[in-house]
Amino acid sequence: MEQKTEKNVLEDERFEIDRLEILDCSKLRFYKDEGNFISLEYNGETYFNVRLTRLVPFYSKTTYISVAYDNKDNEFKEIGVIKDMAELSEDQFKMLDEYLEYKYYMPEITKIYSIKDNSRGFIFVDIETTSGRKTICIRDWYSNFRMLTEKMLYALDVDGNKYFCPDVEKLDKKSIATLEIFV
Fold first, then answer.
1. SS3 helix, strand, coil % of the chain, rounded to 5?
2. What angle do CA 59, 65, 70 make, to 5 degrees?
3. Strand order in the sheet with 153-156
4. 10 Cβ partners below 8 Å, 6+ apart?
5. Could you give the C-alpha distances from 12 to 1, 7, 8, in angstroms and in order?
6. What is the pLDDT of residue 48?
7. 124-173 pLDDT per residue, tens
8. How far apart are CA 145 and CA 36, in angstroms?
9. CA 86, 106, 38 angle in degrees (round to 5)?
10. Tens-digit pLDDT profile for the chain (183 aa)?
11. Measuring CA to CA, which residue among 69, 58, 67 is closest to residue 95?
């Protein structure tokens, strides 16, 4: 009788999370239900109130979109991943794109007027965005006001609103000088 080694045990184990189910876009039928939630018919199954999530939100808006729902036991379950929304019909693409644009709405930071630290873990950032000028409050600025890449700034305010600047080097000199203190 063969004795199982740790390696054999690990090879035999299969975790649901290890599998990436790429969805066949030709079989997907998304629709808005009576409550105006997005639901899905796929492979003979109906999924109500599906949630769409961009798996790489800063780099791709229409590829690798997770489609998930809550099952009868209120457990979060992923149905699968849309590899590229371009494979969807025009009306299906439009419906999902509108949903994702709303869900991931992030005004772009175009200017930074000032950053003030209140010495209690919050900073107040006076910015100009593509949605107008606003002062945002950021808690734990080390985690929520940071560079994602050498050039891309990401900010998450205390209300859960997200902001970004795709290239801080394109900001005016005063904005860059103000920003350098905190990132």
1. 25, 40, 35
2. 135
3. 145-147, 153-156, 162-165
4. none
5. 17, 9, 6
6. 94
7. 999 999 999 999 999 988 899 999 999 999 999 999 999 999 999 999 99
8. 34
9. 50
10. 556 666 555 555 555 556 789 999 999 999 999 889 999 999 999 999 999 999 998 889 999 999 999 998 989 999 999 999 999 999 999 999 999 999 999 999 999 999 999 888 899 999 999 999 999 999 988 899 999 999 999 999 999 999 999 999 999 999 999 999 888
11. 67
- Token digits of residue 124: 């107040």
Nearest CA among 50, 5, 1, 58 for reference residue 23: 50
The β-bridge partners of 31 are 39
Residue 163 to residue 177: CA distance in whole angstroms: 19
Residue 136: which of 166, 116, 151, 110 has the closest Cα?
A: 116
> How many residues appear in the chain?
183
Instruction: Check: CB of residue 62 under 8 Å from CB of residue 3.
Output: no
Amino acid at the residue 142? Y
44: burial class by Cβ within 10 Å (0-12, 13-18, 19+)? exposed
- What is the spatial distance between Cα 182 and Cα 124, in angstroms, rounded to a whole number? 12
